[in-house]
What does this fold into?
Amino acid sequence: MSRGRPSLISVDWGTSSFRALLSSERGEVIDQVETDSGILKVAPGEHERVLFLAVGGWCERTGAPIVMSGMIGARQGWVEAPYATCPAGLLDVASAMVTIRTAALGPVSVVPGMSVIDSHGAPDVMRGEETQVFGALTASGAKEGLFVLPGTHSKWARVEDGRILSFATYMTGEVFAVLKRHSILGQLMVEDGVLGEGFDEGVRSAAGLQRPGELLHAIFMTRTLGLFDHLSPAKLSDYLSGLLIGAEIAAAARDIREATVIASANLTMRYCRAGALLGLTFTRAPEHCALLGHLALLAARGGAPA
It folds into this structure.
């Protein structure tokens, strides 16, 4: 089957990475480019140049509109796109998109991200994940569910009637990276690339936590389990990973028994494995949810930049 004509340049521009896909109107990937030019590496005033170097050829050749999501719309990014407020659906977010007028690329649309007030009265935010949730909904035709977006800052989003009602952020990935690289825990760790017993032991330890402060004690066990040879150095990193992911799932899922994971193959495998140990069923979302979300948002806004 031949691919459709190019109709969208989809850009996921985060803190540490840049990814662009040239897509047909059916969501087929025609071409792609990925670099480490995250917003932290781009100087003020240089965003248009960086974008042009990456996708300028596509733009000139196809005339396809550009839609961007992620941290590029944050205060530290190209232009701040104010958050849409939960609960919000596709039309709410599409109408809140910000348009940047550029000399070389024409109008560039930026997805705003979303904000919510949690049960304790504190604000929470996300940028980019809302687009992926809408993409997953579009792909499946579903109107409700729990969506898990693992990563540096994991998001758990609840959807009803096609609207994101609420979400919560867990700093699982960042805490894991900091503890492994910058604390005493990492000194005993040796990588072996095999996911197994160490990870499962960490998840089981998380399942046994009764009070919030017990996680801090369990984290230190990453060191003592190695010191006393209960776990080999090759299993300690996975123990810490399992402990943190297990604690996240236990806190976020509660009465939910199934959810959709939007993540890389590696993270999906970890969350599915941890979920199975905790009695949850995780289903992996299709690839390119950000792209599918961009297409849905563009269609909701009439098919062209504002």
User: Anything to note?
Assistant: The chain has two domains: 6-136+290-300, 170-284.
